[in-house]
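INFO  loader      accepted 1 record
INFO  loader      residues=306
INFO  predictor   begin
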Amino acid sequence: MNRTKHLWKRLNTTLGRSGMLSAAFLAVVLLAAILAPLVAPADPNQSSLLDAYAGPSGAHLLGADGIGRDLLSRLIFGARTSLLGPALVVGVSLLLGIPLALLASWYGGWVDGVIARVFDLVYALPGLLLAVLTVALFGPGLTPAVVALSIAYIPFLARIVRAAARQQRVSPYVDALAVQGFGVLRITVRHILRNIVPVVVGQAAIAFGYALLDLASLSYLGLAVQAPTADWGVMVSDSDALLKGYWFQVLAPGLLIVLTVLALTVLGARISGEKPPGYLRRKRPAQTAAPADASGNDRTTVGAAA
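INFO  predictor   done
INFO  writer      dumping tokens
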């Protein structure tokens, strides 16, 4: 019991109020995506023209879209594709980027120089442009977009891992482990990488949000997830709903995208040790002591007495 209480207190101290709220929101979204067949009130692709643009009711808690599909069910099932793509992008980027970053930080010299120049070259290519070119070559779909964005996100994550690993590389404990005969693989994986896990996890969360935005943009343009698959980006692209005045059909998925990206950004910043944004942090005004005169008396008090 005491151990659980200590872990909870430590987590609360690390994440803060904003981080805990972000983690709770993301947990709800993730659970809804995993348990979508159980919690969704209807089939996301089942349409009924009689319910087209129906308002909130017992049958459709958030209403229905232009062809009578339940909006809440599509939002819940849309979380699956909206989160799966960014998860693949970040996972592949970390899988390919971390070994290169550790290799560059350990050996340095020309090895570090070559890897850093490759990172700079890939980083100079806009991720969305690379994804559009890939889709133009292989056709629209989630797989080409994920592959292209995974390549584009490798330097985004690997450069941060490389910088953090280089700081650990010059630490005394690394030299002590090397003197004891430990190999490079063991030192880098079991010690250096272990010590920079908060930085890696935090930046991965932030990159997840960016990837979610990129894939939602591609789905909005019809280049990634294709209709009628339930996806937040696809749902935002419903221009007919806007033209007919049913703005909530587009606002709901758009708001979910914004809130999810914001929660990922705040949570990633707190995990990696960065300060939260000022609008999410309460800050007490600093109290400035009144200057004292040569005799050590408070000038304000002395002036008032005079």
